[in-house]
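Researcher: Predict the fold of Aldehyde dehydrogenase.
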Amino acid sequence: MDDIVVKDRIVDEAATSRRAFLQGAGLLLGFALTGASTEFVFAASTSQVVEDEVSGTFAPNGFIRINPTGAVTLVIPMIEMGQGVYTSLSMLLAEELEVKLEHIQVQHAPPNHALYANSIIGIQNTGGSASVRAFWTPLRQAGAVGRSLLIAAAAKHWNVDPASCRAKDGVVFDSSGSKHLSYGDLAKAAAKLPVPPAENVKLKDPKDFSLIGTRAKRIDSAIKVDGRALYGIDKRLPGMKVAAVAISPVLGGKVKTVDEKAALAVRGVRKVVNIDEAVAVVADHMGAAKKGLEAANITWDDGPNYKVSNADIIKQLEEESKKPGAVARNVGDVRKALAEAAQRVDAIYQVPFLAHAAMEPMNCTVHLQKDRCDIWVGTQAPTITQSQVAELTGLPKDAVNIHNHLIGGGFGRRLEADGTILSVRVAMHVDGPVKVIWSREEDIQHDMYRPYYLDRLSAGLDEAGKPVAWTHRIAGASVMARYYPPYFKDGLDPDAIEAAAEPPYALPNIYVDFIRVEPPGVRTSWWRGVGPTHNVFVVESFIDELAHAAKQDAVAYRTELLGHNPRALAVLSLAAEKAGWGSPLPARHGRGISVQFAYGSYTSQVAEVAVAPDGSVKVNRIVCAIDCGMYVNPDTIEAQIQGGTLFGLTAALYGSITFKNGRVEQSNFDTYLPMRIDEVPVIETHLIKSAEAPGGVGEAPTAIVSAAVTNAIFAATGKRVRSLPVDTNSLKTFS
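Model: Structure tokens for Aldehyde dehydrogenase follow.
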């Protein structure tokens, strides 16, 4: 809770009262979590609004504060890392509270599962493309409750029926419109009224929305453009030292030797900290810290994983994938249907380890004192971070203060607390605050990677080419088993099978199973989606194989299998239409299509590619159609489609983390390539207007784009891509 962003300025948190925030949580917003057995309650009390004793702040629930000046603060439950939640979540609140968007300032919520749990996931974190869909109802209810109390306060002042009053742009008017009071004028009085149950406060009918569904400018754009936005890496404190770190290049390795004397001889170096698997050089500034780290001449004991290689990991997956797994879906009689099919198609697909490679490398500033620990960091999981730091330091959780920041790219990497824990371990040896910054090389080579998956598929087709049998075996690591153990049940990782266990197509006989295979010496984690980022590639590529085996057009084939699924059929039809599906293309050009249901949204993409004689692939155009239910800000959705598509496209063309002798072979952007600006295709987004509940957007294009591109490569060359990244050597023409 480090700073408040107000339109185009930053306001220090000291301008607001912590007492009001911690006590002012009077709105009960209880609901059952999807897939969870427990119920989270968005409240500490339902009895009365708690008034700030110092400033008279109106705080009807954990999300809103309005002070006597009329300033409206949204205590925002999700972290801004470029996806636009400062704006979209503020729009939800503003719509029902009846204030202008530009009058809302946002402040990061502190760690508090009870108040700020992400209902899609079950804990307080930013992930799963869940920001809007998790808080679509709670934030609107919060605004509606606040509005009703402010109207009630005005009505009481005028001695009229609240039903005769209305609110608009932060002002309450009487029935004649001649009397009016601002929210600031009413804050103190409203704070003394009992809070109505959220379910008793009527929400707007969507047809009456004036803000939701419109194009709104990002409220965080200006400070990012002019450099005033503060990310975790920007934190400065009086007397702060800076540390550079070197971590064992092999997971499980330890420091063997370190030349502390040489490191301390570098001007500005203050301390060398050896914490077994890492060395930190603490200095007055980053330049001295890096020079000191180089002078330390560290040698390593590689430990038990020094022989780990990609070849060994793939061999392990190949062997394990031959065994039966935990059953995720079993409908009909697949074995009988396969045996009786007119045609059978088999395939093995593979996707590699992937790093996050966010532009802001891992960093954390820590000030550890006897009775408290203050941490300045950009984290997607503040409560998990707080708990792990408390366990490490022995401090009570409420003595661990997480000051959250804007994040310069999260993609799931900031769901992990390993960087913060490393920083706290360094801080244990430092007097005063210390900022620990990872180099780009340390960031890439000590990431927690998207798992490597190997999938085995078989399908049987009838005489007309329709699939009558479908089997899909997924082999790979389970991130869920480590991160959310209660969700890993009966050998099944629900994330690892998403978009595979229930593909959108009509398949009368289907069998899907999962085999957990944990590679030695590799840490795996969330990567802008996990299961769908590999399963959609596999399922949509295999559907394309079946269409080809049936000698049918890829869109027509899918259309036949989606008659029962109107939302999926709608995005397929729209994407194909807007892309000009079926119109002629030059030689070695092709179009490919993919469809998915993931993150609560239906998406379809068409990619248009050109493959040169040397095998190089140029993606010229991407057309995306999405039905994400009721949408908040079309402008943000289009930006997410563009960014997510490029993130997934980069991985499809270039992304691969490989291991040799226990070490990651990639180290910087020369070996772990990002897409360059001259490679970026035209990306078109088409939204389907829907009355359905909101779905997620951020990860959807990342998951769907790879299959569209590889299917287009097949259309251009006749060569099927079954593993990523695309092997351009296999696409060369030989004369």
